[in-house]
């Protein structure tokens, strides 16, 4: 079965102008200025006036829910397949949060695999906030080496809900990640939730100074405070990727923070965006008591895209921060529209709302309406 998208302005994420895009099975067959109809084409979709971009890759979503800071009733529920589809997400990386007591990496693995069976591409990080890291096999090295879908280990630093690991403990974790990833042929990531305590990224900088390759270190929530963001800019100048959260704590609007980083000469390809989707966003008072609680929207990345463009960030750069840059930072394929790539495709209306979504060539959303839902939605 062939599907042909015509009259589309294609961002691969580079701006290719008006093009046609041909899909067969789960792959993109061709992206060309004009593709003639032939007998094998089963469906033609006219994308006149629309943009076609790669499916969004979100590297930080609480697939099994987050929260718990205000008691068991404050635990956010598991994410719904429908929510991911409506957010334009075709690849997702699941993480645990504060609560690794009533939730576990095994729960996360099961949810991740259910999404793979339902049509998306899903990965996960083992670990949570605390050190020692909770794992599936009781070993970071074994989780990383023997479970293909595990890309790295999540921990929390500079956060009052973390476990304040020593530098030597961090060094040992990164060593486990590095050795296992070399064996398994993965990039291998220490994915770090950063809180708002004054030390910020200082331990991560110390790891780099000790000789740890910077590509193993994946900091997120870097725009939480102004001092933290300045550390992140310095980290990016050293060659690291920095991840801005589209739906969570920030010291200024996310689009303004990203523009500031670009003006500070951070290469655009080193900036990524994730949603923190379905994670809780608690508000603590000066005494450390929760005053309010909300959940970060899964659609935060898609909603941020027009704001990035409105402040003058070039369209290809903005799209890459949601797609190709993320794939490179994770060490996975995807995030591009070209022949041979998996057919993960968003079709956007002129107001940048989502019109159609394809994951591995399968239509999941048509004219803004979900074609697929989870078993219990």
UniProtKB/TrEMBL annotation:
Subcellular localization = Cytoplasm
Species per Swiss-Prot/TrEMBL record: Citrobacter freundii
Q: Which residues carry this modification: N6-carboxylysine?
A: 154
Question: Which residues of this UniProt protein bind Zn(2+) 2?
Answer: 154, 193, 221
User: Which residue spans adopt a coiled-coil conformation according to this UniProt entry?
Assistant: none
Give the protein name, as stated in the record.
Isoaspartyl dipeptidase
Describe how the cofactor binds: Binds 2 Zn(2+) ions per subunit.
Q: Which InterPro entries match?
A: Amidohydro-rel, Metal-dep_hydrolase_composite, Metal_Hydrolase, Metallo-dep_Hydrolases_sf, Pept_M38_dipep
Cofactor(s) needed for function = Zn(2+)
Q: Which GO terms describe its cellular component?
A: cytoplasm
**Which EC numbers does the record give?**
3.4.19.-
Instruction: Give the SUPFAM superfamilies listed for this entry.
Output: Composite domain of metallo-dependent hydrolases, Metallo-dependent hydrolases
Query: Which of this chain's residues are annotated to bind substrate?
Result: 67-69, 98, 129, 161, 224, 280
| Annotated TM spans | none
């Amino acid at each position: 079965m062939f599907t042909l998208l015509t009259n589309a302005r294609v961002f691969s994420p580079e701006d290719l102008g008006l093009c046609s895009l041909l899909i067969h099975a789960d792959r993109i067959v061709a992206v060309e200025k004009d593709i003639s109809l032939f007998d094998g084409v089963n469906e033609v979709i006219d994308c006149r006036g629309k943009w076609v971009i790669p499916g969004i890759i979100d590297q930080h979503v609480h697939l099994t829910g987050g929260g718990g800071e205000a008691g068991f009733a404050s635990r956010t529920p598991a994410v719904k397949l429908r929510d991911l589809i409506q957010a334009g997400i075709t690849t997702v990386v699941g993480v645990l949060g504060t609560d690794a007591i009533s939730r576990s990496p095994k729960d996360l693995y099961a949810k991740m695999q259910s999404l793979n069976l339902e049509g998306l591409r899903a990965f996960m990080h083992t670990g949570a906030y605390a050190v020692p890291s909770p794992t599936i096999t009781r070993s970071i090295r074994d989780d990383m080496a023997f479970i293909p879908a595990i890309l790295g280990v999540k921990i929390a630093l500079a956060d009052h809900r973390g476990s304040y690991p020593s530098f030597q403990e961090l060094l040992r974790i990164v060593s486990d990640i590095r050795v296992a990833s070399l064996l398994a042929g993965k990039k291998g990531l220490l994915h770090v939730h950063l809180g708002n305590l004054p030390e910020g990224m200082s331990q991560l900088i110390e790891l780099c100074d000790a000789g740890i390759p910077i590509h193993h270190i994946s900091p997120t929530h870097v725009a939480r405070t102004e001092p933290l963001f300045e550390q992140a800019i310095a980290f990016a100048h050293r060659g690291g990727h920095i991840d801005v959260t589209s739906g969570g704590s920030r010291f200024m609007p996310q689009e303004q923070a990203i523009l500031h980083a670009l003006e500070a000469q951070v290469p655009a390809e080193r900036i990524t965006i994730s949603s923190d989707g379905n994670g809780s966003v608690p508000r603590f008072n000066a005494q450390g008591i929760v005053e309010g609680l909300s959940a970060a929207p899964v659609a935060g990345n898609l909603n941020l895209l027009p704001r990035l463009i409105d402040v003058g960030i070039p369209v290809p750069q903005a799209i890459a921060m949601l797609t190709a840059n993320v794939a490179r930072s994770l060490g996975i394929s995807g995030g591009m529209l070209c022949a041979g790539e998996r057919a993960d495709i968003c079709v956007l209306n002129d107001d940048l709302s989502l019109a159609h979504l394809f994951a591995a060539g399968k239509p999941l959303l048509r004219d803004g309406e979900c074609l697929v839902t989870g078993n219990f939605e």
